[in-house]
Design goal:
single chain; mainly alpha; two-stranded antiparallel ribbon
Length: 129
């Protein structure tokens, strides 16, 4: 995924733990953390010099992370939440351009039912907006 793709992410559709991480360090840094540490707890020290996070985050984001989570093991979500949302957007777009459910299912390695559910999610989102 390209970093420019992050602009298409609807943060409100992400899990609350990921929304809190984004609010703390920003979208790009949160995505970087999920790619490196996703699915595992990461201890957040009280001092920036005691962590390898300084190699991953800009100092301002690291300070914000420490201020909020110092002394705790933060459960970092997997990047799947970002990737799935972007994949579903792509499926919606290709579906609106006439690609059939079976073609989309083959292309994305999903079942026909999953493609149908993704299409319905978008239709539901349009009606409730």
């Amino acid at each position: 995924m390209e970093l420019s793709d992050l602009n298409r992410i609807d943060i409100t559709q992400l899990p609350h733990s990921l929304q809190a991480l984004i609010a703390c360090v920003g979208l790009e840094s949160a995505y970087r953390l999920t790619c490196i540490y996703g699915g595992r707890p990461k201890y957040i020290p009280k001092h920036p010099g005691r962590t390898t996070l300084a190699d991953v985050l800009p100092s301002e984001q690291l300070e914000a992370l420490i201020k909020r989570y110092a002394g705790t093991a933060l459960e970092i979500p997997k990047p799947d939440h970002f990737n799935r949302q972007l994949r579903n957007q792509q499926i919606q777009q290709e579906s609106s351009h006439g690609l059939s459910r079976s073609v989309l299912a083959d292309k994305y390695g999903l079942s026909l039912r999953q493609i149908g559910n993704i299409r319905r999610q978008e239709a539901h989102a349009r009606h409730t907006a």
